[in-house]
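Anyone? Bumping this.
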Amino acid sequence: MPSYRSVCLAGFRLWLAALLVALGASSARGVESFKADSRHWAFQPLQRAPLPAVGAADPVDALVRIRLGAAGLAPSPTADRLTLLRRVWFGLVGLPPTPEAVEEFLGDSRPDAYARMVERLLASPRYGERWAQHWLDAAGYADSNGYFNADTDRPLAYRYRDYVIRSLNRDLPFDRFVQEQLAGDELSGWRPGQPATPEVIELLEATHFLRNGQDGSGESDGNPDEVRVDRYYALEGAVQIIGSTLLGLTVQCAKCHDHKFEPFTQRDYYALQAVLYPAFNIDRWVKPNDRVVDAHMPGVLEAWTARERQLDAEAETIRGGFAAWSRTNRLAGRVRFEDRFEDGRPLADRWTATAPDDDAPAGQPPVRLDSSSAPGAYVREGRLHLLESGAAGDRWLSTREAFDWRPAAEGGWIEATFELKALNVADGGRPAERVGFVLAAHDFNDNSAVPGGNVLIDGHPDGVTTVHVDYPGNDSRSIGDLGRTRYQPGHRLGVRITAVAGGRYEIQQLTDGLPEGKAVALEAADLPRGAFAFEYCCGRSFVVDDLRIEASDDSNPQWVQLAADYRGRLEARQKERDRQLDELASQRTPRPPRIAWMSDAGPESPVVPLLKRGNPKTPGEAISPDIPSFLKTPGSSVQWPQPAEGARTTGRRLAWARWLTEPGSRQAALLARVTVNRLWQAHFGQGLVATPDNLGQSGTPPVQRELLDALAAEFIESGWSLKAMHRRILLSATYRQSSASCSEAVAADPANTLLWRYPVHRLDAEAIRDAMMASAGVLAGKSSGPYVPTPRRGDGEVVEDAKHPEALARSVFLQHRRTQVPTFLGNFDAPAVVFNCTRRATTTMPLQALSLLNSEFSRSRAADLARRLDREAGKGTEPRLRRAFLLTCGRPPEAVEVAAATEFLARQAEVYRAAPDAGTRAWTDLCQTLFGLNRFLYVE
Amino acid sequence: MNPHATAISRRMFLGRSAGSLGGVALAHLLGRSDVRAATVSPAPHLRPRARAVISLFQHGGPSQMDLFDCKPELNRWSGKPYPGGDLEVHFDKQAGNVLGAPYAFHRRGQCGMELSELLPHTGGIADDITLIRSMTTGSVDHESALRIIHTGRFLAGLPTLGSWLLYGLGSENENLPAYVVLADPGGLPVDGERNWSSGFLPAVYQGTPFRGGENPVFHLRTPASVPAAARRNQLDLLERLNRQHAAPHPENTELAARIAQFETAARMQGAVPEALDLSGETAATRRLYGLDDPITEEYGRRCLIARRLVERGVRFVQLFLNGQPWDTHDKNAERLRELCARTDRPSAALVHDLKARGLLDSTVVLWTGEFGRLPISQGKDGRDHNRHAFSLWVAGGGFKAGHVHGATDDFGYRAVQDPVSVHDFHATLLHQLGLDHDRLRYPHEGREASLTDPEVTGARLVPALLA
């Protein structure tokens, strides 16, 4: 009588045979012809042949064994327990097993000890951190914009990284995970300005997936054609990432022409582009820095804002006290002009858009006085509001009175100062990038017979303030930098011109009454008689108060002594004010961060042209959103939403995402194959399809196609559970095989395509760095939040700043700047992301050895590990060695290793015999050597 | 045809073609699982004419009509509106009239090559170089054009020429990086490290910058706290434990290669400083390169180091300048004079010296920027970018000596006779190193990617450049 097991196997074989027949036709055809063909294996639905009853034989193993048997090979025996433990730890959480985990696993003799160990790791938050890096690679994640060599920062990208970590940890079904990343905004139904729930926040964060590609449109400054190309590039990047990550296809070739090797036409390309286009609307472009939104739980932003206002008010009181004191006590000169901007008094009686003696108003349109329509100047709440209009333009608001800017006597001065109150007019507007004002303003059009004048002070809120003479016009020239204090609200700012020897002058910044920074030289010709003016430019609006123009009083003989006394008292007051302000500043918390999201420009359907030869300058016919023709199934189609009344978006992305993940469909089968293949690749070092970004006809065909399909089918059936897939793979005997060599099998199948053993493979860059920190016991606990910066040091090395409190965080939390891969990680093949990376290279090169032997990071971790041994293993050589091997290699040392290490320690003791810390140095050397062991760098 | 149907391991390819390459030298290039994924056609290999390349890269776009391409019409029309029709201008608001060439040209060498008076030393090697006056490229944007000349495409992040060479040819001295970058001590060039990235090729093919000072390569020096004897013991322990570990995996070349790497790295710690040490060079050699003159000393030193590296088997050496000094948007005449004073003598010295040592036949020296400049002025006294024509020179490695290839129109604006695209030039350069540009491919983004991408660029060999 046949056993239960053999019946099951027989059933399984029948199922498999059916599968092989079904697939056979395409495999026979595949290699000889490269004609684009939608009958290619990866584009077929998953076979719904009955799965063999699980129990006696794991389906993965059954499929593998049939292939092995056909080749006359047998699977390898199960690996020993500690090898397995280390394999699973790195596979699931990317860290070496702790000594406690080793003891526990060794001591657990129950039959399901292995399965429970797998469950524990799947439940660990470290799982999400490990697998996030795999997904972030595929999704093309970067903390910088790329494209131009400035490679500017993406300060909010981390929220997407954290979303990925959380989603993986809670095993968000993968179809939903994909839908959220493509169309979370549409799923949420949320509108800007509304309060958000935690779910909505997640959905909005997820859309950052679409922004992962390179995007130079924020810095784009070429001619209009170039700007358009730069914008298209961001859209094309998103299309390409979707192609390789979700569809396993190289769609980008079809941007210019029908794909040569795949059934993907140029129309298909632009039909996919039309799905994304409303979010990347080239004509209604939003630059990356502006593509952010405030979405917070009810009250969060309000509470923060209220707290900030309170601190602002306290700061204002402190500054006000200082200002009042200096007003009362200051040693006044002769005030030539003062305006305290009292409400109710028209500006027009003292101010004008046309400088005295100028022949025309400044700028077009000129500033409107007493008007709050831009460009306008008006007084409100006792302050002067300068409201500039759009991005371009240049104009000024000038005093009606002209002044003599050249003090007569040497040492004499004239100064113009004002209190800077705010860098924007309405709450929420972008802060002004400069606070500009002009001395000796007399000739806006640059057509006056009088040369010079128009001395522009370009006050910088975050950088260096500069002085330009004869601004604007071709003869405008920059003459130098001023001051130290930035043009930030809360200061009285301005300049003082002092007459110096030889009929020349100097200009210097005045901050809160005190000259500051270096003086810049001016000639008499630079300072003709003219007005004071505030500059309007480039959308910069700001608020000021109490403008005062004042000159030295040379009539008082005691002036010098009085001035020195006053200055001393002023400095003391200032110091006390700054101390109080610093204390207040320390109580501030960062603003609840915005979300860098992606959403449609509006609900309307934009015209999306096919670009001939991919060139934005040669638009062709308009293309509607559509699914790729080779994935169309008769009788089923996508319902593209019509523009709906009151809708906020077109709904195209959501429709496409739902189509992609539709159960039973060919596209869902493709998505599942691509995903399962990457999963397999991460566990085995090599995918079932060797080209994870290309499952198309030009990709490498899988040897174990039936295995890939069985896994893909189960993936969908499990409700797209990634954790179920991990279980399925990790619990298989195929995964648990030993990696030991077998000469017959090596001869028959050297590349192990039939999976007769588990392949030895090197840890990736992040796992190596993380393992060094974890072994040494110094891994920081960071599990979310802004990246840890990795600047390029003076010597050129890119490395985390050792002083940063989170410097020793897991590598997934380090800054992922495209052009600045940390040197250590880069040496171990961490990618410089261009589009994305679906497969890491694994190189072996001397720079890796040099990094392990000589880098500061390696030496420091070795020293940390030696100290850990001091703490945890006492003084005896054997217990210390045991602990050291457990921590680094996940198992106690073998006798030969103990012997070799003991001998080594004796030799180092000899080398260091004269040193007081000989023991520490010898052990540090030993620990560092362990980091170079292949036992440490590889999983077996 | 499916490229994978005839895929052959890189090991096999190199194994067959490695007649000139030591097996040991290839170990570090081969001990990688990735090489198995690389597919290179096993077609017959070309007979290599050269084994190394030194690229003297001139960032910014050297002005061809002021240095290499004498245009009498330019001076006749100087100051007048350009009569030749539409020009593609990058900074269109500053476009001016025709700007004459301020310096005289002289015929130099037996071949009578016309060169600017600013290049007296280059004139001295006129009979050794091929001057191409009809180069063209695809972009007037610096960074895009840099990527085109370094990687074949305007996109960022692709493998550079040196990486492709290494991938195709391997290394001849495993104790030195096979692709060395000698950047300007004054700072990085525009586009920084991207200029020597290996892109999607494995990191082993990236350029290794040698920096000035005592630590020319990251992590090269043993920390001061580790005496030589202690390091020796560490290496011994590593080898002992790693060998024991690898014993059950006799077929695993990656494990074996990694064991060897530690010794290689240790040897590199000695080999790099030795290659950079100029104390053994004669006074005559030092003078030749201009080490006796503060203006030429720095560039001369790097040219001399380049020769020493090539002598020691380095495959690809590239010199860069800080920023993009040839980008003469203003003060064109003045800045050309300064730059030529700095680079002319050392560049020519390198060719002389290689020739004298019998190395020029097997070494290609390349002098080029990323594009050329316009015949009209930008602002008062500058020249704007031009992608329609630029000049470069190349010496050695089987390129024709004393030869001028191609010509531009009367104003030097557009290559009109025998134009050579950057891709054509890449194809020809690879050919001289024994590589067929159409077969040197690596799978990437689902395609068999290549440096020249001939299907898209139409790249073709230019036999007229070759002796």
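Late reply, but here is one note on the structure posted above: The CA atoms of residues 607 and 622 of chain A lie 6 Å apart.
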